[in-house]
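Let us walk through a complete example step by step. Step one is to write down the protein sequence. Step two is to encode the small molecule, fe (ii) ion, as a SMILES string so that its atoms and bonds are unambiguous. Step three, shown after the inputs, is the structure prediction itself.
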Amino acid sequence: MSEAAARPLSTHYTDVRRATESLIEPLDPEDCALQSMDDASPAKWHLAHTSWYFETFVLEEALPGYRAYHPDYRVLFNSYYNSVGAQFTRGMRGLLTRPHLAEVLAYRAHVDRHMGELLARASQLDPKLCDVILLGLHHEQQHQELLLTDVKHLFSANPLHPAYHKNPTPASHTAPPLQWFAYEGGIREIGHTGAGFAFDNEGPRHAVLVGAFELASRAVTNAEYADFMAAGGYTEPAHWLSDGWSKVNAEGWQAPLYWERDGASTRVMTLSGLESLSPDEPACHLSFYEADAYARWAGARLPTEAEWECAASQQAVEGNFVENGRLHPAPAAAPKNGPDQLYGDVWEWTQSAYAPYPRYRPAKGAIGEYNGKFMSNQLTLRGGSCATPKDHIRPSYRNFFYPDARWQFSGLRLARDL
Ligand SMILES: [Fe+2]
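Step three: the predicted structure of the complex.
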């Protein structure tokens, strides 16, 4: 059982809720209200929506006499749950000048007070309700990461390049040379082992046939990605999937998101503002299309999620996570007993479609909308990032985004057939 799962539910609840609120400490109320694109949400909305989850799926279901804090919040802060009812348009969340941030924090406090009443008798609660609360805490951790990536995108749209924080740990070491680690082929098992929490999309655990393969010792670096660019990576259609090539041309992509050319040098938008591009850090803010094109140019390919999980299950979950406070990928260390950097730094695109595992069945009711209905047209990413809480990640964790998404901390690691 993981450390998080072993914690009393009430302590776990308080830890996660306070961690979310600590993320807005560096922000002004104005920063919290704005949204810079349809895929992102204002920080204020993340704060409210994660409370909406507990109000809707826990308090209204299980606390006798509970009255909703504000009837309109049911619509305003519903993300995508059609079984719950109507939703406010996602791309217009940045127009919500009301409720004020203070009011959203009061909403959080109201929900926390009533959750406290419920959690005070956690040992008497229906285990199914405890599962819904635990899901809400892991859901809130997902929104913690989204809050940071959404703030980064918002700040990147401002020519003043505001800093969310001052990077406390500038990385200075160089990335080690790329090595390859070989893995035998055979029938392997992937999916959650059943110990501790997992999202439903991580199971059922099942057998897969994996061919012999090798995996790179670290993520692709900025220097390596710059070589691809210098070799005409963005101008040679042979490297690209058809949809990717269309995107390159439609969007005018010439570099990863957040790279800014400044004469001969390149600077990059970070949560510490505009910084010189470090050649040794992992290439980041890449779409699946860019990751795939780079891999093809490099004579390799992206790993499948089964390959990635087989390698990652042999490694401890250690890495550059949000707790480091760096909020930016760091250069890899020299590999010891296997690939480095599988966890943390950057989410690694795989070539695997985000599809249901064999015999997967979403839960009945509104909670069943959490993951299952998104299983089309997206790709899986593995391993967490520098904005992921450490106790949120595990070998079987499946993140998923559309192939053109670039605002997450997404990079890649190469694989090859043996
Ligand atoms: Fe959500």
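Step four is interpretation. Residues 180-417 form a domain with the paralog of FGE (formylglycine-generating enzyme) fold (CATH 3.90.1580.10).
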